[in-house]
Amino acid sequence: MKILLGKNVIDKPFCWNTEKEKNSHMVVLGTSGSGKTETLKSIIHEINLNKVPSMIIDFHNEFADLAKNVLNLREVSINPLEINGESRPENVVYEISDIIKKIFQLGEIQEAILRHAIRQSYLDYGIDLKKKGPFSDYPNFSDVEANIYRQEDTKNKTSIGSLISRIEPLFELDVFKSKTNISFKDILEETTVVELMDFPTETVKSTIAEFFLSKLSYYLYSLEKVKKLRLFCVIDEAHRLMYDNSPLNRLLRESRKYGIGVILASQRPSDFNETVLANVGGILTFQCSLDKDAKFIGRQLNIEPRKIKNLIEPGLGYVKFSRNERPEKIKIILLKDRRKDEDAEKKLKEKDSDKKEDSLKKEKIKEELKKIKEKVDGSKKEVDEEEEYDDEVEEESDEEDDEDSEDDNDSEEEPKEKKLRNFKINIPKGMFFYRKGPIGLQGIIRIFFISMFIVFGFWSLYFLSIYSILFFALAIIWMPYTSELLDPEKKSAKVVHILKGLLSLIIIISFMYFF
């Protein structure tokens, strides 16, 4: 994963490549106002862009706008006495008493009273301290408070009173009175801010953060080991939680094999021991104004302390990764500037997308117009072919009408003939006229007589009269089909008509004579 931090002295982008370092942990250092919190925001923003969630311990409610999930611990509960994994209760007794002792600065006697109360709370629930968990039910801090008061006598009354006065907020807060109901699975799916500002004192906030980290770390250790990063834990003001054997210290040592990166920020380098600084993947430092702090971090970065003290501009610092011998001077790109650049880039992409979409629309319109044009051209071609065919038919019909007009001397019917030329119907070929085309007066007369012959023929046939043969014969003689058989090339139309007339006369006379 590449995380853009800022730009180097030659104004080139400078990235943190987590895969090339010995681990994905980073420590961010600098005095108040040097740019630590803004740097954390920029880093979290880049992690989000890489589709990796973060869990942020937020003591001052400054990171909510970077997260999809805001976890207010006043609305949930944590029971530190629950056994995680295969731990033994006797180990939890020492772990919890040690956390409370370090944060509330208890004395040895106070710690012993607290430890005894925690141990007795387990025994009250019938839990064997040496047996591994989990168990069906657990005590909570209300039970611990009751067992502290049960130890009170004349000898330790002062110690118990002092202990209660110090840790009383832990017993008053509802967050420790019920079983743990936080969904740690959701934390691994989306960036989550754990807000602590709403709690009363700094020690209470630190205690809640410690117990939350403890629960989270045990949940993470229950998962399969992976090489790919699955979560970043980000903690500003990490000095509150750093001490030997703390949950955070344990998380730094063991989380890498579970795909967890840790980013810690604090004002003073001395908040972290040299072992921690020597084993993180990167150290980013801004101005450290105190001489001893500048010298301390100078030894870690192999750089002169005065250069660290002279980092006056906020966001200007030195960063050293585990793979490099020398640090690099960089200027952090602020979150607001990153978002401006991203917005400008987004608008540019949208503009390019709109142009591309418009271009595609134009191409689509061109294709549709082309198809329409092809259809129009095809239709036009068909119309031209039909007109050409109609012209040929009309010419042939005109020739046929000229031939028929030679046998028709009735000049008075010619105007009627012309009126009927444009009337076209389709009838069986060769039955009533010669071709498809205009029907003249002769054609109408021919159709009339042929139809009459056929009707009379069927009528005679119905009565079984021999005259049906006469009528069918006359119909056949005067059909155009007969003329085409007698004169296929139409060279002697008059002779054909004369022959048909003679043949008809002979048939009629024969029937009259013989029948």
Question: Could you explain the architecture of this structure?
Answer:
Residues 405-427 have low confidence and may be disordered. Helix content is 52%, strand content 12%. With 515 residues, the protein is an alpha/beta fold. The protein has helices at residues 36-49, 89-104, 108-124, 141-150, 157-172, 184-187, 202-221, 247-254, 274-278, 291-301, 305-309, 335-406, 414-420, 441-462, 467-478, 480-486, 493-514, and strands spanning 2-8, 13-17, 26-29, 54-58, 69-72, 192-195, 231-235, 260-266, 282-285, 316-321, 328-332, 424-425, 437-438. An 11-stranded mixed sheet has the order 2-1-11-10-9-3-8-7-4-6-5.
Compact summary:
This protein has 515 residues and is an alpha/beta fold. The protein has helices at residues 36-49, 89-104, 108-124, 141-150, 157-172, 184-187, 202-221, 247-254, 274-278, 291-301, 305-309, 335-406, 414-420, 441-462, 467-478, 480-486, 493-514, and strands at 2-8, 13-17, 26-29, 54-58, 69-72, 192-195, 231-235, 260-266, 282-285, 316-321, 328-332, 424-425, 437-438.
Report the structural category: alpha/beta
| Secondary-structure element series | EEEHEEHHHHHEHEHEHEHHEEHHEEHHHH
**Order of strands across the widest beta sheet?**
2-1-11-10-9-3-8-7-4-6-5
Q: In percent terms, what proportion of residues is strand?
A: 5-15%
Low-pLDDT sequence parts:
405-427
Biggest beta sheet summary: 11 strands, mixed
Tell me the distance between the termini: 118 Å
Strand elements, count: 13
What is the percent of helical residues? 40-55%
Question: What's the gyration radius in Å?
Answer: 53 Å
